[in-house]
Amino acid sequence: METKDKKKSKWKITAGVILIIQLLLSMATVGVVLWLNIVPTLYVILLGLIFLLLLIIEYCLFYFGKKKKGKKKTGCYVRRAIGVILSLVCMVVCAGGSYMLVKAGNTLDNIAGNVKTTDTVSAYVMTDDPAQTLMDAKDYVFAITEKYDYEHTQKAIEKINETVGTQIRTQVYDNIPDMVQALYEGSADAMLMNVAYVDVVEAQDGYETFSSRTRTLYDHEEENVVTEDSQTAEKSITTDPFVVYISGSDTRNLTLTTSRSDVNILAVVNPSTKQVLLINTPRDYYVDTAASAGAKDKLTHCGMYGIDCSMATLGNLYDEHVDYYVQINFNGFKTLVDAVGGITVESEKAFRTSEGGFYINRGTNQLNGTVALSYVRERKSFADGDNSRGRHQMQAIEALIKKISSGTTVLGNYSAIMDSMSGMFMTSMSASDISALVKMQLSDMASWNVKSYAVTGTGGSSTTYSMPTKRSYVMYPDEVQIKYAEQLVNKVVEGQILTDADLEIPDNIVQ
What is the predicted pLDDT for the residue at 352? Predict the structure, then answer.
């Protein structure tokens, strides 16, 4: 049998090991918190003191307290048991918390500071064409255009030449519809085009079946990185007003690719006054774009020419520099809604969605990811089309924020939420900028005043820069509303707090 001294010695060693493991896990947790740099210094100090206090309490429970004469050792065992339970709980919290924080940090690194988009130029042939590989088509005449995305087309040609071992023959056309028509008529054997244009082509009369009439022989991908400009780099994100372009990518892929933008929202943020103004601009707005050299185009088409084009176009429209960019991918949005267990929205009318045929009740609706995606993209069921879609998009974003703000939602679906965030968001904000905003919010716990404003216009038909030979539906901007939106932006930038009354256009506005 073991002597009392040996038993005491074993317990002291066991207790010491437990305390050392807890100390290491506590230090690791504090280290991860410091690494993320989103928690105010005071909170970090309090966290460290709590861990230290727990260690002291457990040390006392493990080593102090003597058995009184004539009494059993029950009290001693109870103290030790309480100490072990406290220690285990603390270690589980530290391990789980560290895992969650590291995953959050990795997600932040994935979505922040390195906006990358993928451009894909494909070689198209007719469905019944005998060529099955590029080698089969090396003697073909490829239709190209030098006016639209020629930079990526050139790189695709270089890669094709390298693959087939010779220079392919090309025929230059003025625009994309002419290229497609040449392919249809047999004037060209194949065609090189950025896949971002497919939806635009199929939106034109006579080309609705482009995807079924053609197939791809080859895809060439180019990754592009959007860098922060010098004007934005000089700003302090916790004190200086800034503008964020929130874009909804029309791509159906699980990664972010160059494509049309169906969501075009500017968020004007003044961190000093805690004021946010959301401005929704219809996708079909007929505007001067940064890529069209004076020719007008639909706002949604700007997305095909890159993030910079969309940012510059909206900046010119509202006469305000756009500092940052956030892209929301539709598939990522659907995944995130499912990850949080669905969202609740209020619909102003009952209708059936055009995409998927889902029935939406008037009033409260609980939506899963698939139905929510159809809801935010719906416009055909409403007389004001794009404007209703813009309202629903902002409504869904608000519902997501409310759901994610629930502590039980985040804890219960943490891994799924973090995974979906990587596929849903990409932003030009740096990780340090986002961390600074979070730290600021945790420090002052201030409430934000969020107001929304949507510009509208008059529907019509016109040719566009992207489709110069085909008339498309466009929305001609309401210049009075644009001018008033500029004034609202200036008020936020200058530090004024907006009220609901400020969102109503006065009769005496200067045009």
Answer: 92
